[in-house]
Amino acid sequence: MKHIILFLISFFVLSLYNPSNASSLKSTDIKRIYSEIRDIRGNFIQKTYLKDLNRTDTYKGDFFIKFPSRMKWHYRDRKDETEVIINGQHMILYQKNQRQALRQRFDAHLYGKTPVVLLAGLGNIEEDFNIEEREDGLILRPKRSSGGIVSIMLRSSSGEFPIGSLIIIDGRSNRIEITLRDVSINTGLPDSLFEFVPPEGTSIQDLGP
């Protein structure tokens, strides 16, 4: 799983979709709802298709976001359990089974190259993307270069959080599909949830500024 997560960091982060309410997804609604959100938590299913390898990998896990800049994605994998943590200052990729962590300073440049943080940045959807409304959702195309992303498709949810899934396509025709489940907003996530405390014996590698 290591090479998949490193691909996500360098590249820039379906089953419950209901077609009957997809057309209700509007950029103005997303922007309004994001203005009222302090934190988000839920489960996800991620399907990553790598064209060069002609392979699709599927992962499941939990995610937590606390605005403006704290995030945690926990990938559950029996062979290589992984966490991606952003605490406002650093991005940390922790691989539990390998007992190692990769740490890099987190700034605006990395923000545009990491798919797992894309969900937190949609509050500026109209400023950052050209938007096409379709019956099956919204197509977003970055106004500025953003880690190789060509387009992002958003599909709606019937729950309190408006987005049910994201499909990210890059310039090499790789595809990342993230489906959100059991999403709750404003549950009062503590800051301590986003602090990385390495277990004893963990090797930490700094990737530079």
Summarize the structure.
It contains four helices and twelve strands, in the order ααββββββααββββββ. The protein is mainly β and 209 residues long.
Description:
The protein has 209 residues and is mostly beta strands. Helices cover 12% and strands 44% of the residues. The chain contains 4 helices and 12 strands, in the order H-H-E-E-E-E-E-E-H-H-E-E-E-E-E-E. The chain has helices at 2-11, 27-34, 108-111, 125-128, and strands at residues 39-50, 55-66, 70-76, 82-86, 90-95, 100-105, 129-134, 137-142, 149-156, 163-170, 175-185, 203-206. A 12-stranded mixed sheet has the order 7-8-9-10-11-1-2-3-4-5-6-12. A hairpin with a 2-residue loop joins strand 7 (129-134) and strand 8. The longest helix has 10 residues, at 2-11. It is globular. Mean pLDDT is 80; it is low at 1-23.
Q: In angstroms, what separates the terminal alpha carbons? A: 24 Å
Strand order of the largest sheet: 7-8-9-10-11-1-2-3-4-5-6-12
How many beta-strand runs?
12
The profile of the biggest β sheet is: 12 strands, mixed
**Percent in strands:** 35-45%
Q: What does the overall shape look like?
A: globular
Low-confidence stretches: 1-23
Compute the CA-based radius of gyration. 16 Å
Q: Average pLDDT, to the nearest integer?
A: 80
Order of helices and strands: HHEEEEEEHHEEEEEE
What is the count of DSSP helices, taking H or I runs of 4+ residues? 4
Structural class: mainly beta
Portion in helices: 10-25%
